[in-house]
Design goal:
The structure holds 2 protein chains of 2 kinds. Chain A is built from 9 helices and 13 strands. Chain A is α/β, with parallel strands linked by helices. Chain A has one domain: Glutaconate Coenzyme A-transferase (3-Layer(aba) Sandwich), CATH 3.40.1080.10. Chain B is of the alpha/beta class. Chain B has 2 domains: 180 residues, 3-Layer(aba) Sandwich (Glutaconate Coenzyme A-transferase); 36 residues, no CATH class. Chains A and B meet through α3, β9, α4, α5 and α6 of A and α4, α5 and α6 of B.
């Protein structure tokens, strides 16, 4: 029996992403980015076997890529409003109450940097759980206030009223340093766990607003030996995870 | 039965400056690029363009033909940010109505069903409402009394779409994994022009669900092999990634001079073939 090497930073990230879909049942897991996608496939193969996955286009696929259904954009957007989905989106900016921006930086009327556009963030965020993945935790991403609200945060949903809050939920934010959530009385962002090797001070320093800090900040959980084997040998044998999050 | 076949030049000859123009496909996938290129060779400008944006938007924006864009994004898929769309936005070259992907779909559906709007749970709580002060909400007349966004119909003067096969009457068939919204674009428009990889005399009785576009919604049919180039048109061909990269990294005047200054689609093909030959 060969000795299992300890988990890398990227592997803690994969685990933290996978755990976002724990207990979700038979819903579509929509990961954006390599590490969330490995996390979704790990969850599907282990503790959340009922998850649905796509090939990134119009085909619903099983764990080994076998076709199990058809989901063209028109059905995908309809599924979103039915709520049977949990997406993990990226964020160019993310603020203290979970407002997310992928549209543009600067004044919307004439932006300094035009990015993607709002895409599906507005519809996603008021219809089903939306988590976020930030591969480089920095004050440029974690800002006091986003320039353009694409994904709706807790404060904006509350201000917009019951039809915005009804299905709104941001279960977690995973970064290369930590896991964050909004389990606070006023729904301000809280540090939920730090990845082993990261300090609380490091996370706060990389965040452009004060985080809610519990008295004891736990470490992100260890992957099991079986999970590490699946990540290394089955899901990402080429090591693409290390290109998204290099070893600390 | 009316034979609706025409040339790309015939299509563009029916378009006018100031029109509202819908463009089918999604991102850098099955875009009616030959028709867009014909448009670029014409003097038609001052357009309101409605699109799940890809290089169609980039090309028209770079050439200064867009007065107003209605879109949830513009992307090249394998290259996430559309460089010419970005540059045009950053220099304030056109007005933008930025809506969410699902709002856009409901806008197409409202237009296709001749409704003024459709209620949708999207946009509410986001800055889509701030940057589009004309957007209104509607309150449910039933007990729930929910307040939703009233997405206005996206009616258009003309729609351009590209499919894999079509007959001379305007029936269109797609063979790839996703129909996108091409049937809705045709239904939402006063006139619709369908380009295709190949004209056919009829369709096989099997796979009826691939018969996407119906002739009663179509004004003209154009046979344009490689008409979606450089976007993907599977299974006929995939995206021309090398050429797309060239498009994304070449200064616009240089790209336009080399590939878009010829008299027709054939000259574009020759220029592309010559470029690929040089890369060997």
């Amino acid at each position: 029996m060969t000795e299992t090497l300890p988990a890398t930073r990227a592997e803690y990230c994969v685990i933290a992403c996978a755990d976002a879909w724990r207990g979700n049942g038979e819903v579509l897991a929509s990961p954006m980015g390599a590490i969330p996608s490995f996390g979704a496939r790990l969850a599907r193969r282990t503790f959340s076997p009922d998850l649905l996955l796509t090939d990134g286009e119009a085909v619903l696929v099983g764990p080994d890529g076998q076709t199990e259904g058809w989901l063209p954009y028109r059905q995908h957007l309809a599924l979103v409003t039915g709520g049977k989905r949990h997406v993990m989106m990226g964020a160019s900016q993310l603020d203290r109450f979970g407002n997310q921006n992928i549209s543009c930086i600067g004044d919307w009327r004439r932006p300094d940097r035009q990015l993607l556009g709002v895409r599906g963030a507005p519809v996603n965020s008021v219809n089903h759980p939306v988590s976020y993945w930030v591969p480089r935790h920095s004050p440029r991403v974690f800002v006091a206030k986003v320039d353009m609200i694409c994904g709706v945060g807790y404060d904006s949903a509350a201000a917009a009223g019951p039809s915005a809050t009804r299905y709104h939920r941001i279960p977690r934010v995973v970064t290369d340093l930590a896991v964050l959530d909004f389990e606070t009385p006023d729904r301000a962002m809280r540090l939920a766990s730090v990845h082993p090797g990261v300090t609380v001070g490091q996370v706060q320093e990389a965040t452009g607003f004060p985080l809610v800090l519990p008295d004891e900040v736990p470490h992100t959980r260890e992957p099991t030996a079986a999970e590490l084997r699946l990540i290394r040998d089955v899901i990402d044998p080429e090591g693409r995870r290390d290109r998204e999050v290099p070893a600390a | 039965m009316t034979d609706k076949t025409m040339t790309p030049e015939d299509v563009v000859g029916r378009l006018r400056s100031g029109m509202t123009l819908g463009i089918g496909g999604w991102g850098s996938r099955r875009k009616p690029m030959a028709l867009v290129r014909a448009l670029l060779r014409s003097g038609v400008t001052d357009l309101t363009v409605i699109s799940y944006g890809g290089p169609d938007v980039g090309l028209l924006a770079a050439a200064g033909r867009i007065r107003k864009l209605v879109a949830p994004f513009a992307t090249l898929d394998s290259i996430p940010l559309e460089p010419h769309f970005r540059a045009a936005r950053q220099r304030g070259a056109f007005e933008l109505t930025e809506v969410d992907e699902a709002m856009f779909m409901w806008g197409l559906r409202a237009a296709a069903h001749r409704l003024p709007f459709l209620p949708v749970r999207a946009g509410i709580g986001s800055d889509v409402m701030r940057v589009n002060p004309g957007l209104r909400t509607v309150t449910s007349p039933y007990e729930d009394e929910e307040t939703l966004v009233a997405m206005p119909a996206l009616r258009m003067d003309a729609a351009l779409v590209h499919v894999n096969r079509a007959d001379r009457l305007g029936n269109g068939r797609y063979l790839g994994p996703d129909p996108y919204f091409d049937d809705l674009f045709c239904e939402a428009a006063d006139t619709a022009y369908v380009s295709c990889e190949a004209l056919v005399d009829g369709f096989p009785a099997a796979a009826l669900q691939t018969l996407l576009v119906k002739r009663h919604t179509v004004t003209g049919v154009v046979e344009t092999p490689h008409g979606a180039h450089f976007t993907s048109c599977v299974p006929d061909y995939g995206r021309d990634e090398a050429f797309q990269k060239l498009y994304a990294t070449t200064p616009w005047p240089e790209f336009a001079a080399r590939f878009l200054s010829g008299p027709d689609e054939k000259s574009y093909r020759s220029a592309v073939d010559a470029w690929h030959e040089e890369q060997r």
